[in-house]
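Bug #77: duplicate submission created two jobs. Keeping one. Sequence:
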Amino acid sequence: MTRTPRWTIAIGTVMALVFGVALAVKIWPQLDLVGVGSRAPEFRAVNLRSGRPASLADYRGKVVLLNVWATWCQPCRIEMPSMERLHRKLAGNDFAVVAVSVDEADSAAVLQFTRELGLSFDILHDRTGAIQRLYQTTGVPESFVIERDGIIVKKVIGPAEWDGPVNETLIRKLIDVR
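Kept job's structure:
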């Protein structure tokens, strides 16, 4: 029977520990998924109407419908009018529709799209697509309903009828909760 030297066991243990820590560091962000019950990640983009930087913090204290979209996305084009109708019904001090375009094209193309559809809610532009990484989106459109305290209460992958009874009722309830 051969004996394994203690230093071999020690090196093996240290290597396993180092590998385990490295693996945990690598996969930890994937385990911390953004979804219902999560705090909405802070993001930065440009408000296309003002030309100024914008962030989620600008909407603190409001219920927010955050939509991640692109001009080339046909389902986004179909969804936008329902967001506009909801915005016209409920917009004010307590509610905001915020649509963040992830188009790589310049802002002029995004503004043209919003003019064609007659959109009056806040249109932001994130040419880098950083919001997609922060919110771990799988495509466009994806939307998040965020409470006043920054917690995500609803996540929708794909287009939705935002002024439909279910979504409008949810947002009205969130606005009325103080």
